[in-house]
Fold this protein.
Amino acid sequence: MSGWAPGGALVSNIEVTASTVQRGDTIQLGCRACRVTDLFQLPQSAKQLLFESGELLTIHTRTRLSAVRMLRRR
């Protein structure tokens, strides 16, 4: 599902894994929306995500999370 954000940017609801997550993705964790600011590659294709709040989350290759991604205009 895609839609327009208040600022005029196109956003899309997606499912992310360790291989597809990107900087700038906003991941829904419980009732909180957390924006990814940095990613660190770990052994066995896992990744550690750093959020704007300073919190870390490690995800395994099979972890699936709901996220919102801002899409670039062409």
